[in-house]
Amino acid sequence: MLNIKKIPLQVILFLFFVGCLSCFINSNNINSHNLQQMGIESIVERGQFNLDGSNTPGFQPIASATSDVMQYKNKHYSWRQHGQYLIGSIVYFFLYELGITYEKDAILAGGLITLFTSVLMVVTMMILFFNIALFMLNNKLQSFIITTFMGFGTMLFSYSGTTHYDVYATFFLFLSFYLLFQKYRLPKASSLLQVIAAGTSSGLSLFMSFKSLPIVLALIVYVILSKSKKDLLCFFGFIFIGFLPSLIFNYFVFGHFFTFPESVGLSVFKEAAPCYFSLSNVVSKLYIYFISSSTSVTFFSPIYVLGSLGLFFLPKKYFAELIFLLCSLSFTFIHLSTMNASGGCQYGPRYLLLTIPFVLIGLVGYFNKENKFLCKLESNIPVEKLLYFFGIISIIIFLPGSIIGVMYCDMSKHPFFPFISRIMTGQIPDFRFINFGFSLIFVSIALFLLQNSQLCNRIKEKLMLFDEKYGLKWVYILLIMLIATWVRIYHLDEIPLGLYTDEASIGYNAYSISQIGKDEHGQVFPLFFKAFGEYKNPVLIYFAAILIKFFGPSIYILRLTPSILGILTVFYTYKLANVYFDKMVSLLSALLLAISPWHILFSRTVLDPSSLTLFIVLGLYLFSKGLKEKSDNYIILSAIPIGISFYCYAIAKLFIPLLYISLFFIHFDEIRKRKKCLLLGA
Predict the structure, then answer these.
(1) Which residues pair with 75 in a beta bridge?
(2) Helix (H, G, I), strand (E, B), or coil: what is residue 66?
(3) How far apart are CA 240 and CA 369, in angstroms?
(4) Please, are residues 172 and 208 in contact by the beta-carbon 8 Å criterion?
């Protein structure tokens, strides 16, 4: 019988991470990386390395695949290293025998190959990273957190859903480092076999991608620092053994051991050829990779930048590792500075992908309590909290890339907001493995909780304390808000069908304001908008302009403006009712508004009245709360939404004065005591 308590934590984490990444395997990534799928299919189904002869829809004509295809002796080949295809073909061989083929279902076949190659490789790297962090920190929670940031707050998250040679190369490089780290830091487990395996793994990384070369050189430096000639000679020898399949491939396909696919391809794609190392190219690459708001790692993965800085905080006993990690980063950048290209269609600076697990080891440095500078810094700045904050931000940034896919070709603009816009408008791919992923997540969490019964008891105690302090009202209001959100955003671009003339007018003016700061008549940021012989109020138009500016113009984004305002109205209706009545009445008020057909209709159409209700309710809530708690600040703040409401819809000019005259008589005694704050609010 299986003893759950004896299951290693690493196994549970492995299942959890595989489950998480499996959820994001999608059709966009599989279709956009069809060259990899074509190469795998050719090897297994036709026993050839050229790409010709496929019967799979979308795999022919080959010229439409990618620019990574070249012609050699009237046949089409990929001009990338072919290790990636051989790795994928091992998985596809078994799938093919089971009857799962690209021709029958390319998405299923490609997804399974992605699962058993890239996903398993990234997850294995995460477990190895966790082991290294645990060895350095001796703290499971901290090790888990920084491992999560490494796997989900970097390009590894997005690219784990692709059969990409850089992912494979990164895996073999990090495996090589882990084996050497074990040998030099765990003397009891030290063995020459680790050096042999590390050398072979480094050689295989070169068969995946030549971008591995700088880190292989850094690994050689790491072995040199061990001061063992035997290790060095062994490492060199087995790098060659690992690289041997590449030389054999060259000989049988191109007729010479040292005629690589890249050398043939560069004669065709001259723009991708390396250039001489120059100061101008260094400056250009510094800007692209570390400064540019649309392409740099700083704006994609701030946790990566923190990791690179954290290297200098590593404990002194890890000096050899520090030298290796700095060499990995610096050698890679020097290599990139000799290249004309910096990556084409991509989500994040992909050429830095191979450095990710090495640079993120620097996060360990932020927990080094022996570093005097860091201790002094922590007395003024919450370093750990900032680390967690930027880690979460990094995960959020890479989430859209993992949902939509990694192919983004407009390098002049950061892809985050365009991808969010696509998600919000329902332009999402097919996720075949999401049920499998959630099943693994559930199993792993269940195993973890069964292993840690004390933790379960602590969670129960926390929930009981929460209920005693706050009650379950937040659970109910959360459910009401979910209902309100769902009925207001579901198929928003299709229901109601088509745009009403007033909606189109508001949308056009909002788009114009977002682009040039002028309305359809050329007026600069007008207070009222002339349209159809009348004047439209500005609030809804300016709110819509903000969303359109960030997410682009579409019916969904335009109608999302009143939807957001409507959802907020439900919440503040609950808050307003809570000022005067008990919890039950407050929840009932919010629920009735959440499912009110009248309010749902106006929350799904872009008309002036859509914005009025929120500002009336918000103003009333702040005003009532101020009177109840005798707070002048709330009363003064209430003037802001009330003032804005006059610019939402014409009826407010009549309704608001009547409403507040009534409130004046109802709360005459309280209001009389606060004349100054009322005058200030006015």
Answers:
(1) 72
(2) coil
(3) 42
(4) yes
Task: For residue range 485-522, list pLDDT tens digits in order.
Answer: 988 888 888 888 888 888 888 888 889 998 998 888 88
> What's the one-letter identity of residue 554?
S
Token pair listed for 593: 């508004």
Q: Bigger pLDDT: 335 or 475?
A: 335
Which of the 8 DSSP states describes residue 407? -
| Percent share of the chain, pLDDT over 70 | 91
Give the pLDDT confidence of 22-33 residue by residue, as tens digits: 999 999 999 887
pTM, rounded to two decimals = 0.78
In the numeric block, which tokens belong to residue 66?
């990618």
Number of residues in the chain: 682
Query: What stretches of 517-595 show up as alpha helix (H) in DSSP?
Result: 538-551, 555-580, 583-594
Q: Could you tell me where the DSSP H helices lie in 595-651?
A: 597-603, 609-629, 632-645
The answer to whether the CB of 256 falls within 8 A of the CB of 54 is no
What is each CA distance from 150 to 31, 41, 211, 429, 471, in whole angstroms? 26, 32, 20, 25, 37
Residue 294 one-letter amino acid: S
Chain centroid to CA 85 = 27
Give, as one character, the DSSP assignment of residue 604: S
Which position has the token pair 């692209």?
A: 288
Strands 529-531 and 534-536: antiparallel
Shortest CA distance to 313 belongs to which of 358, 369, 355?
369
What Rg, from alpha-carbon coordinates, does the chain have?
30
Residue where the block lists tokens 């088509």: 498
CA distance 544 to 550: 10
What count of other Cβ atoms lies within 10 Å of the Cβ of residue 646? 16
| Segment 401-409 mean pLDDT | 90
